[in-house]
Every structure is written in C-alpha cells, then in structure tokens.
Amino acid sequence: MGWGFRKSKKIGNNTRVNISKSGIGMSTGVKGARVGANKRGTYVAGGKNGFYYRKNLGNNNKSVVPEEGMSILGTIGLIFSLLWNIVKVIFYGVILFYLIKFIIFIIKS
Asked: What's the chain's average pLDDT?
C-alpha cells in the first residue's frame, strides 16, 4: 500500500487551500459538495454518510512545477493556466452554492 498525506487550510467561509503528496490545490463549496482545482485540472466532489463522488471537469495537462530552463512564455502560460483554474473554481462554486440554496428552498416549501 502506498503512502500519502493531505492537509487542508480554511481561508474565508467556504474556501480551502489543500496540500497533499500530489501538490497544491484550491477548493470551495459547502459541507458535502465542493468544486476544486489542482495540477490535474478542475473537479466537482461530494459525499455523505460514507458515499463519495468525484468528477473531473477538465485537465490542464500542464505541470504546476516549472521545469528547469523553462522560458518566460512557458512560465506566463503556467501562471495563466493556474489563474484560469481558480476562476473556474470560483464560478462553479457560485453555481453550486445557489443550486444548493435553491434545493433547500424547494425542500422547505
């Protein structure tokens, strides 16, 4: 069996910076439902009572760690890709937040 570690630091109300063996990522959402981005791409995850689901929304196919000798254009592209993933996390997080509020409103009605 392989080894691993994971640490999550909460910033703001529903946003986390996640550090693991595979790298650094960012996620936002509520308990049981999150949208995130890491070096593997953007994802949606959720679970409750031991059941868990994760769906990859996209893959940026770029390493987050700059390679030795990387050009300035490659570094700018890498930064742009990371910023784009953060924008997607925020966008999907807002959609998820209002979807959950809507579902709760329907259930309470």
From this structure: 77
